[in-house]
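User: Last request for today: this protein with NAP, please.
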Amino acid sequence: MRLNVLGTSKVALAICERLVEKDHTVRFVVSRSKEKAKAFVEHLGVGEAITYQELESLSGVIFFAVPDSVIERVYEQVKDRCAPNSCLIHFSGFHSSKIFANADDLGFSRASMHPNLSFADAKVAYLNLPNCIFGVEGDNSGLKIAIELVKDISGKYIVLSESGKIAYHLAAVICSNFVVGLTALAEKIYSSSGVGDFRGLMSSLISSVAQNISAKSVVESLTGPVARGDWQVVEKEREIFEKIFPHFVSLYDNMVEILKKLKEGKL
Ligand SMILES: NC(=O)c1ccc[n+]([C@@H]2O[C@H](COP(=O)([O-])OP(=O)(O)OC[C@H]3O[C@@H](n4cnc5c(N)ncnc54)[C@H](OP(=O)(O)O)[C@@H]3O)[C@@H](O)[C@H]2O)c1
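Assistant: Here's the final one, the structure of the complex with NAP:
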């Protein structure tokens, strides 16, 4: 397919790299900065770098690879320059493709194609994309196109309803971003305990939890003092937590409560 990219985003770059390997092509990369568009095209090895001012017309698949909060504005800015029959796709997990208002009346198809992957590191993201599960939704023809693209990246996807996207994204935020937040707390506690080189330790531990979740269920993946009922340990560790994070001790108490309820099957 002929792809176009609006915004020199990390997500678009990794996805386009994978798609170009499967004989899709990139026509225009549109950016607010010519330099950024050029760097994107150079990295990809295909496409023409232009600014929004230089953009005349787009056709084919158009990736709106911009922050969620500006998808609507960028769409309003370029929609008159998108040919009918273009397929508009964004990567947001939060918004549905309905954000492309009146797309149906203007002759566009529309879809969203959300990679359940963290793109914090470009190389890691590129390597993980062949295993990435996408959340996709759209109108009939947009969804068909999004699924065809996903098939050339990982072949793994779930079809989402427009109305369920916000809850779906909240769950993804908890699985991904909240884990980073909790790990930041662990990092501080490790350093206070004198343990050196705890980055590898944290990632291998988190990775083992992820593998257990995949092999079993979430509830069966629960181990540790709450699962065992070692309440003395829970209490003693609470004291240390409170010393290091006096303002967040309610987080510790709430988390213990969550784990208790999970263990009892009452969550
Ligand atoms: N990051 C992740 O891990 C991740 C995971 C799944 C889904 N997503 C989704 O993927 C999409 C892109 O995210 P990303 O993390 O790849 O973004 P990003 O790397 O921050 O890039 C977004 C691009 O949008 C453009 N942009 C930024 N502010 C803008 C503005 N005010 N007006 C117009 N353009 C603007 C910039 O490109 P120019 O400067 O070239 O114009 C920027 O490079 C989002 O919908 C996000 O929700 C992200």
